[in-house]
Write a structure and sequence with these properties.
Blueprint: H1 3-22, H2 29-36, H3 40-46, H4 50-77, H5 83-95, H6 104-115, H7 120-140, H8 146-167, H9 171-187
Helix pairs in contact: 1-2, 1-4, 1-6, 2-3, 4-7, 5-9, 7-8, 8-9
C-alpha cells in the first residue's frame, strides 16, 4: 500500500470516528489532522472540502459494511448458519461497525446523506446490502416472502438500534427485538388459509 493510500485511509477513519464520537459538527480540519496524525496541509492535499471528506467517509463505511454483510449473506445462503447463529449475526450487526462510535456514525452519515443528495447512491448501496443479508437470513428461516419482509426487518433493526443508542440500552435489546420479529415472520402460515 502506498503512503498516499495509507494517509487517505487514516483521514477517512478519523472523520468517521469523530462523527461517531461527537457528531458531524465536530468534524473540523484541525481535529481530523490531529486524529489522523497528519498536518493540515496533508489533509487539504487529499480532501479540499468538508463535503469531500463526508462523501469519502460514507463511501468507506458502505464499502466495509458491504464486504462484511455480503460474506455473512453468502454463509447463510450456503447453509453454513443455523438458527442459533442467526442471533449471533444480529448481535454482530448491532455491535460491530469496524469504525468505532458504537453505530452513532451510521446515523450521522444518514443525516448528512439526507442533506446532501450526492450521498444518496452510497446510502442506497448500504441499505441494499442490508436487505440482501436479511433476505438470506429470512429464506434460511423459511420465511415465504423474504424479499418483501427484508426491508421491514432492516428498518426495524435500524430503528431498534437508534432507540437503543438514544436511551442508553444494551445491544441485547436489539437482538431480542429482532428475534421477536423473526419469530413473527416464521410463525406465519406458509399457505393461504
Amino acid at each position: 500500500m502506498s503512503q498516499a493510500e495509507s494517509t487517505r485511509e487514516r483521514i477517512i477513519r478519523a472523520v468517521v470516528q469523530i462523527m461517531g464520537a461527537d457528531g458531524a459538527a465536530a468534524v473540523t480540519n484541525r481535529r481530523i489532522a490531529a486524529e489522523a496524525g497528519i498536518s493540515l496541509g496533508t489533509l487539504t492535499y487529499h480532501f479540499s472540502t468538508q463535503g469531500d471528506l463526508v462523501e469519502a467517509g460514507m463511501a468507506a463505511f458502505v464499502a466495509a459494511e458491504t464486504v462484511k454483510f455480503t460474506q455473512m449473506a453468502d454463509r447463510v445462503a450456503a447453509g453454513e448458519v443455523d438458527l442459533a447463529q442467526a442471533g449471533e449475526i444480529l448481535g454482530a450487526i448491532v455491535t460491530d461497525t469496524g469504525f468505532g462510535g458504537d453505530h452513532i456514525a451510521w446515523f450521522e452519515l444518514f443525516v448528512q446523506a439526507a442533506r446532501n443528495p450526492s450521498l444518496h447512491a452510497a446510502t442506497t448501496e448500504f441499505f441494499d446490502t442490508y436487505d440482501r443479508l436479511a433476505v438470506s437470513i429470512l429464506r434460511a428461516l423459511g420465511v415465504v416472502d423474504a424479499e418483501s419482509a427484508a426491508p421491514l426487518a432492516v428498518a426495524t433493526l435500524v430503528g431498534l438500534q437508534l432507540r437503543r443508542l438514544a436511551q442508553g440500552g444494551s445491544p441485547d435489546q436489539v437482538v431480542e427485538g429482532m428475534s421477536g420479529l423473526i419469530g413473527a415472520f416464521t410463525a406465519r402460515p406458509n399457505s393461504p388459509a
